[in-house]
Amino acid sequence: MNYDLKENGLKNHIEQWLIEENIQSNAITEPNHLLHFVLQNKDPNIPIEIFQEKNTSDLIVGFTTFLSNELNFKLYKFTQSEKEEFKIKVDEFLSTLRLDYRIGLRVGYDIISETGNFGAKYFVKTEADTCDKKKLLKILDLVKDTYERSEKFLNKTIKN
Questions:
Q1: Which structural domains are found in the chain, ordered by start?
Q2: What is the pLDDT of residues 44-58, one digit of tens each?
Q3: Under 8 Å CB-to-CB from 141, ≥6 apart: which residues?
């Protein structure tokens, strides 16, 4: 592990980097996490989280988003064939989110459904001990870009 990160703690570094970049955040204390921040993005309003679970070397940056009530309603009105066509389009879109593993980032996503609302979790993982400010900011840009692309894709695909 990078000596400086081990000595000072990644949590303190991330907190300082966010302050330096004028990114507002809230630190959350969770028993299963070494660190957990929720960013207060204003434009666009993206619910980005940064966390590291205990007993893992992965630093995770990601978001969870749900379809608007309007889009959920339209999705429920789809015929079976429209739903199957939509699923194919979603799978094709999600396949564009993959990254070249040689840059040290891993991307993942899950489709979720809670109380009748559909959404997705998207996340980028990197080794915590290789994370520096430049890498974290690159990941944040990637996550924001993915959020915006996802919103455009869903609005275009479901509204048609």
A1: 3-159 (3.30.1460.10)
A2: 677 899 999 999 999
A3: none
